[in-house]
Design goal:
Number of helices: 16
Radius of gyration: 20 Å
Shape: globular
Number of strands: 8
Bound molecules: 5,6-dihydroxy-NADP, zinc ion
Structural class: alpha/beta
Distance between the termini: 37 Å
Order of helices and strands: EHEHHEHEHHEEEEHHHHHHHHHH
Strand order of the largest sheet: 1-8-5-4-2-3
Length: about 375
């Protein structure tokens, strides 16, 4: 087990009827807030009204900045920064899924910066300060509600980059599973796939072979994501199904799973971000396809690791590691199909002839994320397994 520091400062309020806490919790950080949300789901399901009522009851003045799209855009965030500065807001409240929370985090750091926010994503500028962020999560997927990361698409350069900083953990996140009752089946699936991939990224790239505590934790999260996804697809208003999926997705990327694993990578996300940047595919949909290709590309080099996962999660009995690894990948592919996730570039609507362009697009993020070993040639070879 490698040395590690685990410090996650985000306060989580989890459960039914917790939305009413967002007002007092935000008041503790400021009297005037920018309220960031998406393209209307929170207005339709009533969460927006419950949040604004709570803010007003707590004496928090709010200005809205709606319209965050899935795979949030730099241009829209820049407008949020302008609004935050012009109104001298003291806090940012995010009400939505990962796209909204990520956009809110970037607005929060941009509101106190003298330069364009994209410089944070290219590593040209470091974070010195940020406004406080509070969130009400409405979609179980990204884990942004309890981590310090954010991802943004620069539509001018067609790059989708991510970065993180310890100052960008949300101060408070409200997780009321009932807000996710209205999440459509496809985004229920994409969210579960995102959570599974967050765990797999660390499980399969960890540099410490002897980490049973972390392995059992990660295997359990993968099992829960799969089981809870099925429950929510069967009954969208299954409270405990939604609660399990929500908490699993949060734990999948809040730093806990990587503790003690040493250097870990995020290669599936590296590749998926190029698919989302170029084709605007939903993040979890792209990951379902990339995950299978990446596993196939590493079926020999990681045979034991993949086989170990299969034995624990899918009950694979094969003794030969490569045979067990192949069966594990096939079980995962069948599960993905059973929840209507895409399992090929073709199903994503990405022509195989575009593989070189996708691979070339990933080069920039590979440099920023110090994953230079993922050359365009290596990314193209992995994408060939995703056809
Ligand atoms: O925009 P609205 O109308 O709200 O609709 C959204 C959107 O269309 C809808 N939705 C959200 N909550 C809903 C709902 N529909 C009905 N009922 C609800 N309660 O769902 C759609 C997708 O929302 P989005 O926020 O885009 O999904 P998700 O939470 O998966 O976030 C994806 C973004 O997170 C980033 C991804 O790159 C992507 O941009 N990620 C952030 C990470 C982080 N901060 O650590 C890590 C992740 O790996 C990921 O990269
Ligand atoms: Zn993700």
């Amino acid at each position: 087990m490698h040395n590690f520091v685990f410090h996650n400062p985000t306060k989580i309020l989890f459960g039914r009827d917790t939305i009413g806490a967002i007002g007092p919790e935000t008041k503790a950080w400021g009297n005037k807030a920018l309220l960031v949300y998406g393209r209307g789901s929170v207005r339709r399901n009533g969460v927006f009204d419950r949040v604004t009522a709570s803010l007003e009851a707590a004496g928090v003045e709010w200005i809205e900045h709606g319209g965050v799209c899935s795979n949030p855009l730099l241009s829209h965030v820049r407008e949020g920064v302008r609004l935050a500065k012009a109104n001298s807001v003291e806090a940012i409240v995010a009400v939505g899924g990962g796209s909204v929370i990520d956009a809110a985090k970037v607005v929060a750091v941009g509101a106190v910066a003298e330069h364009d926010v994209w410089k944070f994503f290219t590593g040209k500028k470091g974070v010195k300060a940020t406004l406080p962020v509070t969130t009400v999560l409405t979609l179980a997927a990204s884990g942004s509600e309890m981590n310090s990361g954010m991802v943004l698409t620069n539509e001018e350069t067609r790059e989708k980059f991510g970065f993180g900083h310890r100052l960008l953990f949300p101060k408070v996140s409200v997780l009321d599973p009932e807000t996710t009752f209205t999440v459509p089946p496809e985004y229920t699936t994409y969210g579960a796939v995102d959570a599974i991939s967050h765990v797999l990224e660390f499980y399969l790239t960890a540099s410490d072979p002897d980490s049973p505590v972390q392995d059992r934790l990660m295997e359990g999260l993968i099992e829960n994501a799969m089981a809870a996804c099925k429950r929510c697809l069967t009954d969208p208003c299954d409270y405990n199904g939604r609660a399990n999926l929500m908490w699993t997705a949060t734990l999948a990327l809040n730093g806990l799973t990587a503790a003690g694993l040493g250097r870990v990578g995020f290669p599936m996300h590296l590749i998926e971000h190029s698919l989302s940047a170029l084709y605007n595919v939903p993040h979890g949909a792209g990951l379902a396809v990339v995950m299978l290709g990446w596993l196939r590309a590493h079926r020999q080099s990681l045979a034991e690791r993949i086989a170990g996962l299969g034995r624990r999660v899918f009950g694979i009995a094969a003794r030969d590691a490569e045979a067990a690894a192949d069966q594990t990948i096939e079980c995962l592919r069948q599960w993905l199909q059973s929840v209507n996730a895409p399992v090929s570039l073709e199903q994503l609507g990405v022509p195989a002839s575009d593989i070189p362009a996708v691979a070339a697009n990933a080069k920039g993020l590979a440099r920023v994320w110090r994953l230079q070993e993922y050359t365009p040639e290596r990314v193209a070879a992995i994408l060939e397994f995703c056809r």
